[in-house]
Design goal:
400 residues, alpha/beta, Aspartate Aminotransferase, domain 2, seven-stranded mixed beta sheet, four-stranded mixed beta sheet, 15 helices
């Protein structure tokens, strides 16, 4: 049912009065979604190229997700991790296989998955090498979460401002070069944590050659290699993991966002010897691996890993890249186009990304920013060729 203007205004007033002002809201109330489209309280439709910030991998209200979640909420909602539940065990088996890992820990978000990865790396290193080990290297322009530890791991001062004193144990590498990594490593270093594509940092793919060198260096020095695939995982790049497309295997990998298809779900996966550092009581989560979220994740796996699906993501990604390059030939506002699969950043001249987002919205397209000068396009993985054409046409009009 479409809300009346009075109802919409009342909801907006409550939101402004009662919700902490941690978000710069867009002037929309989204009331319904279907496929790659969402609808506001007045019935207006928008092509959604945000995917809920890379969460709605299967779009809105995908039938497989609706069926799985509906069935599960009628069976068992929650039992805690003190008891075995079928959906979690099934998900662990399928997810470890998909990721090439041995064990999984389930939580509710990307920040929690990265917290678990940091804790696991430190516990493993202290057990194996001694109490002095615990330092984690991260990279400039990274983003690893909003908790006090993961915001410290995030090497962007704007996210850290006002939250000191920040915990120790993190060092930042300024560039994707092995010389910079070697300079940053100390006797205390236990792990290197990196996003294969920096999302919040401007949609910046890390060169695959550098990731391979980093893998070799970690093997030689005994450091753990952690891939933060919170935004790139679950098919976003055209492979289940970006690591797989880049040909590099981490020791620990984190997932969230698209993993639950829209329900809160995060996971930290590791190889057997590393995972063994987590013993009963070492870490935990009340809601992690909840049966409903696990069923949703299983449905995501069913769809994304079905024969041909990821090849389709690659094709749509190539189409989107080519279309963006075509637009760039006819405007001097586009300075760079970066990405992989269905994760693309469009850097524009000046610092007007927010203005372009507003113009796109007025024309019926929802896109994101990734910094003041970069537009971020994250369509659902089920996007059609026609929807990509429509989205790029709107973007071109907004840039004109």
């Amino acid at each position: 049912m479409v809300k009346t203007d009075v109802q919409a205004e009342a909801l907006s007033a409550v939101d402004k009065r009662a919700v902490m002002h941690t978000y710069a809201r867009q002037p929309l109330q989204i009331v319904r979604g279907s496929g790659c489209n969402v609808y506001d309280e007045r019935g207006g439709s928008y092509l959604d190229f945000t995917s809920g910030i890379a969460v709605n991998a299967l779009g809105h209200c995908h039938p497989a997700l609706v069926a799985a979640v509906t069935d599960q909420v009628q069976t068992l909602w929650h039992m805690s991790n003190l008891y075995l539940t079928g959906p979690q065990a099934q998900l662990a088996g399928r997810l470890t296989e998909a990721c090439g890992m041995d064990r999984a820990f389930f939580c509710n978000s990307g920040a929690e998955a990265n917290e678990a990865a940091i804790k696991l790396a430190r516990r493993y290193a202290k057990t194996r090498y001694g109490a002095h080990k615990g330092e984690v290297l991260t990279f400039a322009n990274s983003f690893h979460g909003r908790t006090i530890a993961t915001v410290t791991a995030t090497a962007q001062p704007k996210y850290q401002e006002g939250f000191g004193p920040l915990p120790g144990g993190f060092r930042y590498v300024e560039s994707f070069s092995m010389a910079a990594v070697r300079e940053a490593v100390t006797p205390k270093t236990c792990a290197v944590m990196i996003e294969p594509i920096q999302g919040e940092g401007g949609v910046r793919p890390v060169p695959a050659a550098f990731l391979r060198e980093l893998r070799e260096y970690c093997d030689k020095t005994g450091l753990l290699l952690i891939f933060d695939e919170v935004q790139t995982g679950a098919g976003r790049t055209g492979a289940w993991l970006a690591a797989q497309r880049m040909g590099v295997a981490p020791d620990i990998v984190t997932l969230a966002k698209a993993l639950g298809g829209g329900l809160p779900m995060g996971a930290t996966l590791a190889r057997e010897d590393v995972a063994a550092a987590f013993t009963p009581g070492a870490h935990g989560s009340t809601f992690g691996g909840n049966p409903v979220a696990a069923r949703a994740a299983l449905a995501v796996l069913d769809v994304v890993l079905a024969p041909g699906f990821l090849d389709g993501v690659k094709r749509r990604g190539e189409q989107l890249q080519a279309a963006l390059c075509e637009v760039a030939m006819h405007t001097d506002r586009i300075q760079d186009i970066r990405g992989m699969g269905l994760m693309w950043g469009v850097e524009i001249s000046g610092a007007g990304a927010a203005e372009v987002v507003e113009k796109c919205r007025d024309l019926g397209l929802l896109v994101l920013t990734a910094g003041p000068s970069t537009l971020r396009l994250l369509p659902p993985l089920v996007v059609s060729a026609a929807e990509i054409e429509r989205a790029v046409a709107i973007l071109a009009e907004a840039l004109a």
